[in-house]
Write a structure and sequence with these properties.
By secondary structure, the protein is mainly alpha-helical. It has helices spanning 2-32, 35-48, 58-71, 75-103, 109-113, 120-140, 142-149, 153-177, 182-206, 222-246, 248-255, 258-282, 284-294, 298-312, 314-334, 342-368, 372-396, 398-424.
Length: 434
């Protein structure tokens, strides 16, 4: 518990810096291009970021497997998990990179995004840049997952934040020396973090984490099934989340236009402070729950869950503060001359409260490895969410997207609450134990 508390404090410091960088990045980016081009960037980057869901759940499976091996004191097995996971991830994402680059020869981005045809050549180049650097970033991201599994989430987050800072610095440099360019923006926001992550991973595997450094000799293909066994459930969850959430920007740009995506993104990122603050508290307990469940420490898990549940109530206070300040922040910091309806802020804030509660259950259950019910909920909503979002966005604009997303997470929170309580009270039989 003491280790988790230390990580929470360090994560708060790191996340404050990360939020400052993120909030500064939005006006810096809009200032470099413009609100319309920024909306296009958000839409196309959302499509590329779908690739994150095609690691087949391996990183989540690796996280739990590595944490289990460490809890049992088997360092050789832990290193084998690292080497094997790097090898498999490299095969997956180098393959996806090749497929993406080839497929891009025949994609008409102007038609897909509903923008001027003169942008098609630029968007072709932007996609190529993004698919290359994002593929590399997905491979090297395994190091930050290792840190999470090793109960060093603050260290992991600091590496990500450093990459974001370098991205912001790159945008400022491009703004000073060049005219607005989506190609330069793609390199700054995706290329720079990927390169910095690769360098950090290489240095730390040579020094502080050399005991876990991947090597060809410790690749063990027999571990793949074990990693993918749990990971496959995470993959189905991730793939379902792709349909539930990542189509939101695409639907908005098709129905409401590129500038609407910019407005939605600004409000989403502002009120995501609720999700981020609560996530700081919850994050260290994923691997802590893995360790405790492996050792049979149910009493510690129960008392910890009760504390986390009380902490979640702070989300309401955070929402009230953010909502009260929202018009000031939009005008003088984030959006400047953009007018944003207070009702969008209200809806987004309430959605973030629901999301944070659902994440409390998901972090705990993911750490335990009981994700079957979570998977079923996401699969059901994956089948119906896109048509629902399309219909509701035509009827109610932004609020249609928010409504569907809120219903998904509310359902997840209700089922997660029941399942976690049954597990902590040794009543998890049948489907509740999966």
């Amino acid at each position: 518990m003491r280790l988790a508390q230390k990580n929470v404090v360090l994560l708060f410091v790191n996340k404050i810096l990360a939020m400052l960088i993120t909030f500064q990045l939005i006006p810096a980016t809009i200032g470099y291009v413009d609100s319309s081009q920024y909306g296009i960037w958000i839409a196309i980057s959302s499509i590329v970021f779908w690739m994150i869901y095609f690691d087949f759940g391996l990183t989540h499976g690796f996280r739990n497997s590595f944490a289990n091996a460490k809890a049992k004191g088997d360092m050789h097995l832990a290193k084998s998990y690292v080497s094997t996971s790097y090898f498999v991830l490299s095969l997956i994402f180098l393959g996806i990179m090749g497929i993406g680059l080839i497929a891009n020869q025949w994609i008409n981005w102007a038609v897909i995004l509903g923008v001027d045809s003169s942008l098609n050549i630029i968007l072709y180049k932007v996609f190529n840049l993004m698919v290359v650097f994002f593929s590399l970033q997905m491979i090297f991201n395994l190091f930050t997952t290792l840190l999470l599994a090793d109960q060093k989430p603050a260290f992991s987050a600091s590496i990500v934040t450093a990459g974001q800072f370098l991205a912001l610095l790159s945008v400022y440099i491009f703004s000073f020396f060049t005219e607005g360019s989506l190609i330069n923006l793609a390199f700054a926001l995706v290329g720079v973090p990927a390169i910095s992550l690769a360098i950090v991973s290489f240095i730390l595997f040579k020094t502080r984490f050399r005991d876990y450094a991947p090597s060809i000799g410790t690749i063990n293909f027999s571990l793949v099934n074990k990693i993918i066994g749990l990971g496959s459930k995470f993959f189905i969850i991730q793939l379902s989340m792709l349909f539930v959430f990542q189509f939101a920007n695409f639907i908005i740009i098709r129905i409401m236009g590129a500038e609407a995506v910019t407005t939605y993104t600004i409000v989403y990122r502002y009120f995501s402070i609720i999700y981020i603050v609560l996530g700081i508290v919850f994050l260290p307990f994923w691997s802590a729950f893995t360790d405790a469940y492996t050792k049979g420490e149910l009493s510690w898990m129960k008392s910890t869950y009760q504390r986390l549940s009380k902490i979640w109530s702070l989300s309401i206070l955070i929402f009230v503060g953010l909502f009260a300040l929202s018009s000031f922040v939009y005008k003088y910091w984030l959006a400047k001359n953009m007018v944003i309806d207070y009702r969008l802020s209200l809806a987004m804030g309430l959605y973030m409260i629901i999301l944070s509660r659902a994440n409390l259950y998901m972090y705990c259950l993911n750490g335990i490895g009981k994700v079957y019910l979570q998977m079923l909920i996401y699969v059901v909503f994956a089948l119906i969410s896109i048509p629902m979002m399309y219909v509701f966005t035509n009827l109610w604009g932004y609020y249609g997207v928010i409504l569907v997303s809120a219903v998904v997470y509310f359902s997840q929170a209700v089922v997660g609450h029941i399942q976690l309580r049954r597990i902590l009270n040794n009543l998890d039989n049948g489907i509740w134990s999966k």
